[in-house]
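hey so i finally got around to running the thing on that chain from the lab meeting. sorry it took forever, my laptop kept dying and i had to restart like 3 times. anyway pasting the input first so we r on the same page abt which one it is
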Amino acid sequence: MDENSFLTLLQDTLQCEEALRPELPLADVPEWDSLAAMAVLALGSRRFGRKLKLTQLRKAVTVGDLYALLGTG
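ok and heres what got predicted. didnt touch it at all, straight out
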């Protein structure tokens, strides 16, 4: 999956109103919270076949880190 498609998918998953960018810190995404983290874990499993652990997800600092973590980058 290319980066733009991933950003669109993540924006939809998190129900963000603003467009996401790879360099955007997750801390600056208003919708980023524990429920959003769980949604990303489910997305990784369902869409990318990646069984991520919460400890792995906590290491992600930016939206681009999520892209790399899910193995799409």
